[in-house]
Design a protein that fits this description.
about 190 residues; Hypothetical protein af1432; 11 helices
């Protein structure tokens, strides 16, 4: 059994105080969403706590680890290496023997860009990261409400808000984000 206090201590040491508070909020939100959708609440809490395990790593370290383990999916990741924190974090959590639970690791690996084959558990972690209370952006409350009503609708809104944020701030868009958004949009036809 995982000792959640030990996990909290590990994360508190790895992350800035703000990022640690975010992880705690994501854990609580993930647990609540899991309860709402009949998913494993303990695993959702753990995934939420651990989702940013590699967030504090320097860009070059993220790239080095990702190259070593063949985690690079697109050349854009060299330009915005922070995107790699999700897949690198999942890999390091296994290597550091923090968890080997594939449900948790897959959700962590997918929490930034999404994926074409997301489980409800994956969607819960992705959305918990977007809707936790310390997030401050227009339409967060709307997304929060949708997330508790219908996961796929919330995924579409969350992905579109992410894309809009990138466009508004002249940031690069990862092609996977667009692909995943289109998959959720197609479900509405």
């Amino acid at each position: 059994m995982v000792n959640i206090e030990k996990i909290k201590n590990i994360m508190q040491e790895r992350l800035s105080p703000t990022r640690y508070a975010h992880s705690r909020n994501v854990a609580e939100e993930a647990k609540n969403l899991a309860k709402n959708y009949g998913e494993n609440m303990d695993k959702a809490y753990l995934a939420g706590m651990l989702h940013d395990y590699a967030k504090g790593l320097a860009a070059q370290k993220l790239i080095t680890i990702a190259e070593k383990h063949d985690l690079i999916e697109d050349k854009i990741e060299y330009l915005i290496p922070d995107i790699l924190h999700a897949r690198v974090g999942a890999r390091l959590l296994r290597e550091d023997k923090i968890t080997s639970d594939s449900l948790i690791l897959t959700a962590i690996a997918r929490h930034t860009l999404g994926d074409a084959n997301m489980s409800d558990f994956d969607k819960i972690i992705f959305l918990a990261d977007l809707i936790e209370p310390s997030r401050d952006y227009p339409l967060r409350e709307r997304l929060h409400c949708i997330a508790y009503k219908q996961l796929d609708d919330a995924m579409l809104v969350g992905l579109e808000l992410t894309i809009k944020h990138c466009l508004d701030n002249k940031r690069l868009l990862h092609p996977k984000t667009i692909q995943v958004r289109n998959i959720f949009l197609e479900k509405q036809y």
